[in-house]
Amino acid sequence: MVYIVLARKWRPKTFEEVVGQEHITKTLAGAIKQNRVSHAYLFTGPRGIGKTTTARLLAKALNCEKGPTPVPCNKCTNCKEIAIGSSLDVLEIDGASNRGIDEVRDLREKVKFAPASSKYKVYIIDEVHMLTTEAFNALLKTLEEPPPHVIFILATTAPFKLPLTILSRCQRFDFRRIKSKDIAKKLAEIAKDEKLEISEDITFQIARASEGSMRDGISVLDQLISLGGKKVTQGDLQAILGIVPQGTFFELTKAIGENNTKGILNIINQIIDQGYDLRHFATDLLEHFRNLLMLKINEEVVDLPKDLRERLKEFRERFDQDRLLRMIEIVSQAREEMKRSEKVRLILEMAVVKLTRLEPTISVEEILRKIESIEERLGIMPAQEEFPIEEAPTHLRRGFGGQEEGAPAEKASGLEGPLARKVKDEASYLELGGIKDAWGEVIREIKKDSAVTGAFLMEGEPIALKDNLLTIGFNEDFKFHKEQIEEKENRELIQKALNRIFGKDFTIECRLTNTPRERPEAVAQKGMVMSKEEFIEEEPVVKEALDIFGGEILEIKPPTGKVIPPGENKK
Amino acid sequence: MSFKDIVGQEGAIKILQSAIKNNRLSHAYLFVGPNGVGKGLTAKTLAKTLNCQKGDIDSCDKCRNCIRIDLDKYPDVKVIEPTGTSIKIEEMRKIRREASFKPLEGKKKVYIIQEASAMTQPAANSLLKTLEEPKGEMLFILTTSNIHGLLPTVVSRCQLVRFKPLSVKVIGDFLTKKEGMAKDEAYMASNLSEGSLGKALRIAGPEEKELRDQVIDLIAKTSLEDIDEVFKTARQFTQDRDQIPFILSIISSWYRDLLVFKESQDSTSLVNIDKKEEIQREIEKYSKEEIEETISLVLRTIDYVKRNVNPQLAIENMLLKIARHEYTRTEKQRAKKQNTNKFTKICVQGEIND
Do B26 and A222 touch (CB under 8 A)? Predict the structure, then answer.
């Protein structure tokens, strides 16, 4: 007698038995109940998850003698005929073999005839993505308006290969990958029926290896049974799946941690001698490192049985995140190369040797922190004052960090200096008084960008604030300064500085007044009066020039070329 | 040939034999493993076993059926191989037509598709339905060395049987005992064969061993001092086009040995184990990084040659770079000795871009 593989033997016979596709089976059952069955369906999804099965179930449900019913009886002639594939009214067409236009023409001819013994004529076209373009086009009209007794079910793993005109004529159902948990449950059920002793751990491993495909899972189970034992051991499973035992990965990780090159090469040698697929091994090694990394970041996402997880934890402290990331990088690069090359052994050996060569690295945060502390010791202003670190580095640091959210990131996100921040904190809403108080700060801030502009602004003072319109008053004697401030680029500089300090955009207006005024610098620096010459002299560039040439300041020229004789601004 | 004569694949054979014994033989198997490890042989032996007049779990190798299968004259066993580089859909159509008939000799129809990843897309797709639910007494055996070249839908319909690369010992023993080869020749071939008996048989022999000695000699000697020599070596390497992959794998194995030995000081896993002294001498000259770089270089060259880059150019380029390593290093040493910076460097540069 011919042996029927388990995957065929256990093909679901009712909608309920279809695992993990409730969103589809329920909809279909509902449609049948309410007599709203469409004339064209498209079933898509990866291999081995129930497309063809569901198509046959739908055919049965419609053509069952008691039907159309969501629960086909599986006993009547129609049901039985459909199950063994001999029904005259359910035609299962292999789209990949009958892909030409002639086959479709033939189908169109036959569609007209009424069903022989049931209510509907159901055409199941499997692997429909292989039809030629002409064949698809020839099908369009029939698919849109078939005779009332005809129902099309198209099934494919590659819906993107279908023309849009076909897609739009079908009700589309996307089948999901089945969860490992659900597959494992089903496998346990089958194993019990086949009188095979199998542990939960092993069913789970099979389920994971089958990547969401029920057929793949059942195939492995089938092979395990055919080995003949009554009980499935871990060894059997490894032989069938060709996976390297987990222990090897731990040994390898240990050797890497100890930079024991000799040990590592020995392990690789063993793996080769035992005939494991090295490409497969590289993939599993990658997964192992990934688990190790995830253990450091977020334990939740580590998909491992508990005992293995505990064992992995021993290694958690031995590698820091940066090293793990680099290990992953090296292995995944090697894996890519192995795919193309025949020299798999050599590539793998090179990669593992490189793994031992990774010295413990210093993280970016560590370096930043060190720089900061050095700066503090040297008495330099903290880094962010001089080099405002903007958005991008913050992200970067977050990306690397994880555990290092706190201080540096926060500091980096602000743009202003410590003094200005005080201003901002205290005057969360702004009044003229607030601006006046901080005017010295404003001028200093501007001087950083342009000393000349700062110098001009020194002669003005804020006199009015309405909404965002800041009026700066200049004494009539300083008309020139006012005009300079009104220059576009100077005005922009001031606006920028104000924004940096107060975190707000201002519009600036200048006005001449006759009130004599106090110097803002004087206000800010408590009576330390500074003449223009003194001020300019303090500028590093000028100072250096004076030092080099040993001269003194005779007159100060603004960029426009006009001459201001010294002393004019003295009272 | 029967199962018991196939070396090194006990695991795979156990799976198949116990399936026969327990009457749980699937209708489709996929044999996965490197070339030349016995996939084809096992497939044929399975076909023989199923059609053998004795009806045991191994073929008798003597009955009419077994002999006829060996000679490809048995009507129920068909071997499909790539014609040119691919297996086309016509081939599959033929199978499907035949598949609807009962086996002529009344036992089992077996279709062996060799190197199934060579099936064109339409061919592979057209097989899907038959592969899932064949009618009657049928067995499909697909073999492939590259499972990634197959449609996942095909893989999922077959039971996977993995074939291991053979260990150095298995191949070495086979060559000495069954082929009567000298031991060092046998092990040299075995080490270079990457676990493939087929390949080992191709490269085993006194000539090949001599060639290896020559290649290693030349490589170790390469130096920019005598640039004519470099080009001469390249010419020598490319003389026989069929030998190029072999020569390149000798070179890669040589540098691999240097790396392994330098890292581990362990000679047991060396490929060119008989050259231990030379290896010891050579590693003094190189830093680990230099060896790694050279290995990447050789691997790249292998890739280039595989992708039809002019082999002479590729190999000249490789040799010049190896020579440059040598040159810069000796220059450095000399510079150190003379304590001067006034040396000029000749850098030969040239990349073959993909």
Answer: yes
